[in-house]
């Protein structure tokens, strides 16, 4: 039975109605039973969810891409560019990053040692600016 179908109720709703009639307010067991059966009947193992990697374990180019999509970094890039009342979008933040690292493409970060050093310094400055680490004295 589909919950999205008009006029039909989800199994969770039926459990609630049945348990209220019985006078049982604790119907979580039935809801869990339905959820478990739904998970396994869909063929998706809940234990095989994608693993999240730490940012520091990723390639520098991938780190830069994620960083450019961070609203805090976009604000940081705007402030550093002399526009304190603005916030950049992801492409403007990427342009700022490429300018600071003196590269034409973020993929160059994976192979260029000077660009990697610039990127590491930029990340440290951003982390200090955002309060993730204590500012340098």
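-> sequence recovered:
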């Amino acid at each position: 039975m589909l919950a999205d179908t008009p006029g039909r109720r989800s199994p969770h709703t039926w459990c609630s109605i049945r348990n209220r009639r019985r006078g049982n307010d604790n119907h979580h067991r039935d809801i869990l039973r339905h959820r478990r059966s739904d998970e396994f009947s869909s063929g998706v193992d809940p234990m095989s969810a994608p693993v999240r990697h730490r940012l520091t374990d990723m390639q520098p180019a991938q780190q830069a891409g994620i960083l450019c999509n961070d609203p805090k970094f976009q604000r940081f890039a705007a402030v550093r560019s002399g526009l304190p009342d603005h916030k950049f979008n992801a492409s403007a933040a990427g342009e700022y990053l490429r300018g600071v690292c003196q590269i034409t493409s973020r993929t160059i970060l994976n192979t260029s040692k000077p660009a990697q050093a610039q990127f590491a310094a930029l990340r440290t400055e951003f982390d200090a600016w955002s309060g993730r680490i204590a500012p340098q004295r």
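The first helix runs from residue 11 to 22.
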